[in-house]
Amino acid sequence: MAGNGVFAEIIDGDVFKYYCEGEWKKSTSGKSVPIINPTTRKTQYKVQACTQEEVNKVMEISKAAQKSWAKTPLWKRAELLHKAAAILKEHKAPIAECLVKEIAKPAKDAVTEVVRSGDLISYTAEEGVRILGEGKFLVSDSFPGNERTKYCLTSKIPLGVILAIPPFNYPVNLAVSKIAPALIAGNSLVLKPPTQGAVAALHMVHCFHLAGFPKGLISCVTGKGSEIGDFLTMHPGVNCISFTGGDTGVAISKKAGMVPLQMELGGKDACIVLEDADLDLAAGNIVKGGFSYSGQRCTAVKVVLVMESVADTLVEKVKAKVEKLTVGPPEDNCDITPVVSESSANFIEGLVMDAKQKNATFCQPYKREGNLIWPLLLDNVRPDMRIAWEEPFGPVLPVIRINSVEEGIHHCNASNFGLQGCVFTKDINKAILISDAMETGTVQINSAPARGPDHFPFQGIKDSGIGSQGITNSINMMTKVKTTVINLPTPSYTMG
Known about the structure:
Distance between the termini: 70 Å
Helix content: 25-40%
Largest sheet: 7 strands, mixed
Strand content: 15-25%
Number of helices: 14
Mean pLDDT: 96
Low-confidence stretches: none
Structural class: alpha/beta
Strand order of the largest sheet: 16-19-20-15-14-21-22
Radius of gyration: 24 Å
């Protein structure tokens, strides 16, 4: 299905093309980048290895296309986005197939990602019309010492060329969460998809192509980060960078200069469970939050901080649910599927071995076959273990027993991450006090961490990111305020 039918033009032989100037092209490099299927550990797809010269061409075209697009009526931009959303949802099956083969996402979740992405695009179109269709009117005599001799009109205008870099775990959804706000706001968009997930992203871009967006407005370049990564992020033609990923974002932020940044760089989301919590509710959310998509989510529960008095009961409840999780290939819709790469699996194993050497309690035997790691709950984890602080991005969940709420808050706040956290308690007063004390961008009360719904604000503090996402925040972030001041010859007072 992938690369067939309406998608036939995006592939040449066995190598997928890149997208520039409204056309699917082969790179002059003559080279390709292999995409390894995490399940088979064999090459599944190949994409173009674009050159720096091709990046220069993309930036030049993007800048020119943006000037025309900024003059396109807002309703027309929204109309095209709605059309792209419909086409994306219509072709969810081949795109989902790519997600299954590229990133081992369970089949049902892969379809959900594509449909959710279409819904995000449509909502962005509607929200953009509301936000960008309004301006602000100020008068000068509201500030001391002034008469009403100046009228100030403010509106939002586009930044220019937006560089979007999504991560492997949601290569379609986190791409459109950047693309749609950029386009509705009047920007042009250059997408650099992750290697794992690039083919799904290319299929998604073709849906925008089929919708009839102007040539050059959207571009998608593929290739090795070592060759075009820094060249893209430091390119003088870029006016804004929206990045989701890991440590690479820190390096980008240091090199980007005077360019607005929107970044989400991972988390070590803590789950605090108090004595009065509904332990069945907590256990269900811990398993869902910690093990869905094999824990490869920025907002996954990464550490459980449970009061000692209820720890035994909670661990048994979580353990019972973990043992019911299905393990296997994504095509079979298993709960736990292979992690994205061998290097990821090796990193996770390193954290597990460190915990084993330091006498953590293994609630299940550690088991691994290739990139497939069976779900593992680690009890009696201590702060001197790597797993207490490092983000495994895999199906391994540590439990730390605490003796006070303060101890739990301290552990949460001692982390260099601060994306999300959650607290389980029946006392809303305690929940609010703990939420205020936790140094994270979002705190969920009686639920696992989650990025959505996609119009909610989503942000991290500390090493978890810069700026805020969510549809409304992204539109505002990808625009700047333009002010026009009308100077009157004499003071004016309406109905004076």
